[in-house]
Amino acid sequence: MRAMRNDTAAFHILATAVHGAAVIRLGGRFCPRRATDPLARDVIATIIAGLRRSVDTRFRAGTCFHRAGAAPVPPAATAAGAERRAPPGRPHPVTESRAGRRPAVPSPARRGRDLDPPAHPSYLRRACMDPAVPGLPARPRPVRGRGLVPAGVAGLLGLLAACGGGPAATPAAGGAVVAVDIVRVVRQPVTRLLRVTGSLTADQSAEVAAETGGRVVETPVERGSQVPAGAPLIRLAAAEAEAGVQEAEANVAQIEVRLGISGDQDFDAERVPEVSNARAAMRLAAAEFGRIKQLYDERVVSGSEFDQRRTQMEVTERAYDAARNNARQLARQLEATRARLTLARKALADTVVRAPFGGVVAERRVNVGDYVTRGTRVATVVRIQPLRLELTVPEQHLAILRPGLDLHLEVDAYPGREFPGQVRYVSPAVQPEQRAFVVEAVVPNAEGLLRPGLFVVAAIRQSDRDEALFVPSAALRVLDGSSRLYVLSGDRVEERMVTTGQVVGALTEIVQGVTDGDAVAATNVSQLADGTRVRPVTAGSGGTAG
Fold this sequence. Notes:
The chain is of the alpha+beta class. It contains nine helices and 19 strands. The two termini are 73 Å apart.
């Protein structure tokens, strides 16, 4: 039970050191301009050194830990008590060690009793409990230190390594001088980019369906086939459609013969044979009636014969009008027959399903032998040159967007490669669910690398150019999610927390934390901390931003 309480006390000592270091590191979050990692390491190192010195001093002096209020045991008293317990004729190891003699090697049975006190404090603990030693309590509270101090030191050393943030963050030890390249923070014009996300869509996409029924007899394309406009996608059995065309052509030819026309000749009712005959009969009747009328006026023929000729002339006139009407009706029938011929020819042409535009076959849904009906989808064709890009832009950026702005986009399929585009359409209405509006852009895809459906990150170039502060990206050091720069101050560097902005090539925009012309370290930043001494090697400017 006493050993357990003593182990708990030792653990409390170690826990206090750990908590102290954690509080120091947490304080660095609220004081970002102060480097707290070196301070935490110094605190832990100091605690470890103190523990070691305390243990060594107490053991070598022959003292022991006991209840509060008990005085340390003098070395002479400890040795005297040990001699009283030593058996006759055998010097005690303590007295032998005091006289400079080499202590005897203890046997396993006497382990923990006949050992050198500086290396094994249990003997001192036994000596401290000797009731014959004056000034000691009868039941002291010893501390069982065997194994605790080495374990605690090892745990603190592991914590010390963890507090440094990993092997990449190792500042120079002590007063070592770090050689660094120095660059100047420069102010340069930069084109502002609005970064938004979206998806690529095909310029045109069609689900091609059959317009007539039939059995599939040929499928000349596969998925991924490049097809021009009008290229056949599937072929259906055409025997029935061909027979329908022949029937319609025969009907048209029959009516054309009756009307006396052929091919593309225009219709003229006077050239219809029936109309010509009726016209000739009418003219003959009119001529005879003219002669009878003259004779009737001379009183040569009777009135009945005159009436008969007049009636005959009127009948032929009515026959002529009827013949003309019949010819016109037959002409309209010819038009209907020609229309049926056109439908029959279309049904024959529909037995071959063709691509509506040039593109890529994304899907073929039927195979040879399948029976399709009117409206059955047989293939999907998409046009991917160019592509459309649909972007969702927050409403606060509405004022800076307009058709014609250039942009470039990136996709995960081609890391590091940019593809150009141009804004073509800005939605006139904001979507109330997302408080955003849709922007559509056109993206050339002559190489065919991009595909509909790809997720993209687009950067829209604004027309106005601003000025901003830039440093090389290599000068930045990121720890715990915060960016830092090391600004030269005399022969040392000052660590500053900065806010970064746009990245342009090898340069990074600094929004807050430094001023124009500040000298910052650009190399070996992982070895730097606040106040580290440095030796400038080269000096330059931040570079040029696009």
